[in-house]
């Protein structure tokens, strides 16, 4: 139930970080490992290295070679296939509406990247479904508006559950954490909260090589911490409200995408547009909704 | 006095975590160790590795081999048998009512997994009895309702003690900790508290490989910490009240299960249903009680 | 001036913890070391290992062998004998009344284990006297009432000093710390405070193998910390009051036990009962006093 | 989008810090590495060492030799060229106005060093553009006025975005952090806040050799922390206001520099003066604006 | 300006603690080192080991042998002799009155050990003078009254300075720290504050072997911390007042002892008694003053 | 811009501290290194060791030998000469008035050591000028009055800048930190604040050998921390006011010393006295000003 997964370069970069301290064999090419693991997120890649190292230890080898990486990848992907067979019907429905929520919000806010694929086939380790947005280009800057739109796309899954099931699930955990991270960065790093102004309250970033894993103590006062929390909450609440408005207005489209997903499991971007165009021809809730 | 123990795969995963830093011999298969330790929880498995390492050190070996694991398992299980012989009558009664409380709540809330076995035979190291619920399927998502029901099952043991003995024991410690964990996760990770909203306040999860065992400092303010505490308390109190209502209404069934347990030591799921059906034929408190 | 010392199994377990990181010889059997150190508490055993390691270093050995353990034990016990010869009369009187306080409270509260021996002969390193209660059986559960009774027995020594000398001594330090630990656990781990409810506020227990010796940061708010402190204080004050009431009522018995101790240095359980029975035949304050 | 990059000596000094713990070959001359990396900032150099070490590991070498440094430099610079080709038009416009804001403020405050070059060609890893001020001399002291002017130059980029786009971007993150550092140092280290007086509240500076990477705990009270935060905020807000005033008054010049930058990508100091002189001949907003 | 220095056994124990991690030669006998360093306090002994290790390193030895300890002792004692020659007259007067204050309070409070020697000859590294009380016996318990009297003796030096010079010096630093430690222990460890009651608020004592040098985080609330501070302050203030009263009443004796000290440099216990007896024959302020 | 630099013995002691963990060759004599580095402060010496170690690493040596120390010293002193040539006129004027402020306050407060030399020639790494006071004797005690006078001398440089330039510079950073340290020690270690009384609030001093570089957590409450901050601020403000009064009254002398310094770069103590005597013959502001 995640969006915005790292591409092959991103995966290689993540592998480089996690491989530190692990002795790897001369035949290991992290770029190739990255190529073999589409859909894996950071935690999946860390787990992969973990598994490969355990296999190597069990085989009494001095280093982790490509064969261990290959076997660990097979093992993890095998687990995923099993996972998919074993989700129950209720869970599949939740996943379908959740992903549809992501996709529909992505199509409704002005600056989101186009949706390339929505799927309820598990990917990576943690994701039970995914919404893939096609970045038409690498981005080097994000404006305030773009960050807020991205935050709303992240909340789309949870809000769809709220509206449809009147109950909510643990499936949004990662989405909520990433949305909170965006909101917190806007307030403490990017100077995007009028209340807090241009002052930054970031923890000092140390280069990776020197990272000791010990969190530096907060430099700011408790009062400032309260203001930061209040601003982060405000950003999250306003976005929550905005996403609720979008998905309530477009509930018909939400149902349509979800039902189609439950039938086909995967919808490509063009199919999605066609689907909504057909629906829109009959209704009127397909317009873009700005915050 | 615990419910929800890890299965063989879970035990293997836990062993992998705790084995880090321990040099094991080439004949050690953690999967096999997991198979030999049904009923062990995380702390039991950590203790097992501990014991095996001590044995290996005493034998002047350079690695911990399968023979040490085997001996350590025997030793621990021997201790358990002794423990069971030595519990006094009062303790056995407390354990019986405690487990009956778990089982009866599990049968009374709408979403709990069916009870497979209730027993007052010690299992693992820490548990003096156990209530085994049969997961009819692996679960990948939990809804808010399901989490609250699970929390209530965990409180069932303590509340049974309250009602029957007017005194309470230390036996609920692990249950209370796990219930608190669920409540706290609902508030800080799953966005399931209306008061706190969708903001997450989790500590950053690091992948296992990088885990340094040092807790990152809290990122949020004292005021937020108070709101989190208040919400966690509210969830716990409401569940406490709900479980009290369930067990007070069904006190007859609670007595019946407990007495049967004291006689037979173990009751299987079907026997339990039959027992309550018989009782229900005579009374009227067997209906499912929702929160 | 301590009660409730670890038995031989407990001592072996404690030795296992403290021996980590110390290279011991193949002839060292921690079970035997435990058998040679009756009356030693945790700190004594840590000190013992410390002494043995220093001896080994001084002898230029690569490991700490059984001979070092033996010599270190002799040395420590020699120190104790000297200590006993050197206590002054005032100190001996304080110790006698202190131990009598423990013993008399143990005989007065409903759930305390029977007193097996009271002595003003030093034992272990830190204790100037001791009151030994005979656990008639191993205990796997403690009820709220039992914990409070145990807490009162711990306070018995200090309160006897208060009543008799109108001055108080440092001798109760360990008792007070252990009583505080019980009260704090009741409030934060066992859900035994109505004010705090069933929520647990324990620090995460890590298995020994992974213990890094670094305290995790508090997870709860300052307001909660204040409530915990207040509840712990309340439990301690109520128990203080109760013990005061017991010992004031039975002051005659307190004097009798203390005088006998100063004469005989050690009183066995049966002698103690006979002593009080004789006294009771003449007075009327021997009834059990409940909280 | 950064100003004030380290010169070749500064880069060598930074390399020395980050190389600690890395085994380098006898042919590595950090001075030469510094010479090969113009425009790299601290994080870039840390990353460079990281990359070189990874290359060395992949090549199974025991040390990181000059060839790895050379290849890592090529790789990073290659990435930069690609980055420049891939920025979209909107991003390029933001970068152009951002750099123009830095440059125009630098030309408007009394004590700033003269602008030597403004460019929207990426430099180092993190910077999408840069404004280079020519330090006509090394500085050993900075007065309060000079620090405030430098702070304003740092804010110039963000404020230009505010004025032109009504939206703001993440591109100012590093600028804001450095401006906050200046403001915080003025208050806590240089005794330049009347409110806080001459008292310093710095963390103890340890020499690099002893640096353990663990932040010392704050020595001052929460109340003092609040006063520090308030003073830092005040300095930042007043500077924000001042920069806003400067760039609003000189909006014509801001547009002119930005348009020229979008055409030519780089403007040298003399060209910049000529450009504004031409504009000034037609308007009247070229006067220096003091705070 | 210190009282209560460790005896030879105490010094050996301290050496054992500080020697950890230092490789010493087979000829080193810490008991002998302790015998060679009368008057050294803990910091002096740590410094001694430090010096010896540096000498060993300079001599390219693999271990610190007895010759290095001998040389380091000579060096330190040489420094002390030089120090004594170099104190100026004003400093000598301050030291004389300071030590006289300690001695006179020790002779005035009911439970203090008798004064054996007062001296203004430096001893150890840090002490410019000393007051030696003769412990007529080892003590295993201290009552509340005894602790308060000891605290007052520690404050005697500073208060004498206050009364005589109307200015105060840094010479009381160690006395004040030790007095504060006593007051804090009374409140947090010995249950001797009525306000805080019998609850202990000590940090967990870890055995030396496991000591990681990392302070465990406070377990109690800020409110409790305030109450502890207030009680410690109260104990210190009341003792300050009491000592002021004693020394003001006995100012004649204070002058007499100080003048004698400046003449003779050292006064033995019997001489001191004779001195005051002579004075008392003429005045009336020699009575013991209780708190 | 510093006063009170370590002498050759002090430099050797500092070198000993920083050399820990660095493998030095048999020909290295830290006493000789100390003799070669007059004017170096602690940070300079740490930097020197750093440089020498880097040179050794570059030369592929296993230890840092005397030749590296020699080269590192030359390199650092070379940098200083260059620094002096490169200070601009404004900076030189600031330094001149700053040092004159130190010197004039030192000559105006009753207990300060006589000024031996004032100079605007850089010394050590960090100092752009220096005021050398001749300690006519080693001091073992400092009274409250002496500490306050020393604090005022430290503030003299900054206050001179305030009065003359109406702007202030970063050059006082080290002075302010040391003045704050004195004020804080008076309040928390020397019992010299009436408000805080005789209680000490120092962090536990560990002997150097055991120093782990980890700051122990504060033992006192937030309220106490506020009182400490307030007292430190009060001492600093009162001293600030006093120094302002001194230098305002003697502004003529301040100008005279500064102008002379700008001409001659260095003024010896006798020349300084003669200079002011000449001036005093014509005016009347040369009297000592007490606080």
Topology:
6 copies of one chain form a homohexamer.
Chain A: E1 2-3, H1 8-19, H2 30-35, H3 42-58, H4 66-86, H5 89-108, E2 115-119, E3 130-133, H6 144-165, H7 173-188, H8 222-249, H9 251-264, E4 266-268, H10 269-282
Parallel strand pairs in A: 1-3
Antiparallel strand pairs in A: 2-3, 2-4
Strand fraction of chain A = under 5%
Largest interface, per-chain counts? E-F, 54 and 39 residues
Q: Based on CA inertia axes, which overall geometry of chain A fits?
A: globular
Radius of gyration of chain A: 21 Å
Main sheet overview of chain A: 4 strands, mixed
| Contiguous uncertain segments of 5+ residues of chain A | 204-217, 285-291
Strand order of the largest sheet of chain A: 1-3-2-4
What structural category do the secondary elements of chain A indicate? mainly alpha
Quaternary organization: homohexamer
* Average pLDDT metric of chain A: 84
Order of helices and strands of chain A: EHHHHHEEHHHHEH
Helical content of chain A (DSSP H or I, runs of 4+) = 55-70%
Question: What is the terminal-to-terminal distance of chain A?
Answer: 24 Å
Q: Determine the number of helices of chain A (DSSP H or I, runs of at least 4 residues).
A: 10
Number of strands of chain A: 4
């Amino acid at each position: 139930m995640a969006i915005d997964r790292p591409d092959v370069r991103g995966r290689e970069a993540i592998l480089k970080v996690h491989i530190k301290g692990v002795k790897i064999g001369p035949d290991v090419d992290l770029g190739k490992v990255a190529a073999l693991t589409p859909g894996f997120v950071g935690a999946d890649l860390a787990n992969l290295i973990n598994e490969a190292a355990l296999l190597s230890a069990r085989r009494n080898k001095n280093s982790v070679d490509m064969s261990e990486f290959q076997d660990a990848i097979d093992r993890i992907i095998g687990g995923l296939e099993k996972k998919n067979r074993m989700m129950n019907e209720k869970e599949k429905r939740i996943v379908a509406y959740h992903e549809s929520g992501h996709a529909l919000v992505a199509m409704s806010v002005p600056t989101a990247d186009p949706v390339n694929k929505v799927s309820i086939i598990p990917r990576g380790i943690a994701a039970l479904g995914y919404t893939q947005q096609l970045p038409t280009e690498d981005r080097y800057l994000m404006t305030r508006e773009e960050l807020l739109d991205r935050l709303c796309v992240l909340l789309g899954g949870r809000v769809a559950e709220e509206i449809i099931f009147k109950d909510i699930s643990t499936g949004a955990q990662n989405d909520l954490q990433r949305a909170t991270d965006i909101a917190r960065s806007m307030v403490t790093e990017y100077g995007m909260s009028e209340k807090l102004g241009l002052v930054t309250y970031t923890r000092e970033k140390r280069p990776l090589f020197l990272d000791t894993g010990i969190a530096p103590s907060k430099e700011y006062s408790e009062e400032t911490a309260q203001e930061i929390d209040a601003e982060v909450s405000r950003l999250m609440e306003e976005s929550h409200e905005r996403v609720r408005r979008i998905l309530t207005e477009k509930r018909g489209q939400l149902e349509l995408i979800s039902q189609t997903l439950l039938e086909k499991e995967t919808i490509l971007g063009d199919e999605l547009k066609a689907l909504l165009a057909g629906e829109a021809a009959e209704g009127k809730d397909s317009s873009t909704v700005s915050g």
